[in-house]
Design brief:
The protein is α/β, with parallel strands linked by helices. The protein is built from 11 helices and 11 strands. β6, α8 and β7 form a beta-alpha-beta unit. α1 packs across α2, α7 runs parallel beside α8 and α7 runs parallel beside α11. The radius of gyration is 20 Å and the shape is elongated.
Length: 263
């Protein structure tokens, strides 16, 4: 049993929890809780298991069968608390490999329903958007290089496993991606307070890309220059804008509604 924070594995796990640089260097990240560990195993990304001493022998049924197939380390409760990023750890943690996708492959996916995130910064928003993108049947999520890291522990938890199922990529130039999509006759829509049309007016059934901007500043001028049309989400009261994840959800599910109706 590991009972010292001087242990090399413990030091590595702490770095992976706290440092984006370490995650990027190793291609690994940490998943916490029985659900996410089981998801990582199901999609072939689980590398190793770590169990807190207090849960040994009474593991969640979602992971009990995994103990026979993956290297497992027992960790004292006090040390497990140091490697966990949650306030009340479940006592199970996994080391997982990052899913990797190529931009060109994503742009060729069927359905042609893309979400473009322009410098989105909030971990909770990104996690919720990834989860919603799966539910709404989006083809892929494409992020600008200035967006929050997908494998940030808070993002990982918020995705509820969608991180293993929703194709994604980070790109150097989101406007360039927009130009590529338009060259393939896929319209690019952006949300704006002074939008020209309501979000449910376009025909999304032949494919479309939706741009969601930074929480504080919205869509960048460079990105707006590539938008086919600006969408407006009507609001009562004195609100000027909605939360980024809420705006994204409304439009993604309108896309899904139209596609289901057409089918």
């Amino acid at each position: 049993m590991i009972s010292s924070n001087a242990n090399g594995q413990i030091k590595e796990l702490v770095k992976l929890q706290r440092q984006q640089r370490q995650r990027k260097k190793s291609g690994l990240f940490v998943v916490e809780g029985a659900k996410l560990v089981a998801e990582a195993a199901e999609y072939g990304k689980l590398e190793k298991l770590y169990l807190a001493e207090s849960v040994s022998g009474r593991e969640d049924e979602r992971i009990s069968h995994l103990l026979k197939h993956y290297p497992t380390e027992l960790v004292s409760d006090s040390i497990f608390g140091e490697i966990s990023d949650t306030v009340t750890p479940q006592g199970v943690l996994g080391l997982a490999a990052m899913p990797v996708y190529e931009t060109e492959d994503l742009l060729a996916l069927p359905g042609k329903r893309f979400l473009l995130l322009d410098d989105l910064r909030d971990p909770g928003n990104l996690g919720t958007i990834m989860r919603t993108a799966e539910g709404a049947g989006m083809s892929a999520v494409i992020l600008s290089k200035g967006s929050v890291e997908l494998f940030n522990p808070k993002v990982v938890r918020a995705t509820m496993g969608a991180i293993f199922r929703v194709p994604y990529c980070y790109v150097e130039s989101l406007p360039e991606i927009a130009r590529t999509l338009k060259s393939q006759e896929i319209p690019v829509f952006g949300t704006a307070m002074n939008g020209d049309i309501l979000y449910d007016e376009p025909d999304y059934t032949e494919g479309a890309a939706i741009v969601i901007g930074n929480e504080a500043n919205g869509i960048s001028e460079e990105m707006f220059a590539e938008v086919t049309e600006k969408l407006c989400i009507p609001m009562a009261g004195k609100l000027e804008s909605l939360n980024a994840a809420v705006s994204a959800a409304l439009i993604m599910y309108e896309m899904e509604r139209q596609c289901r109706k057409k089918c």
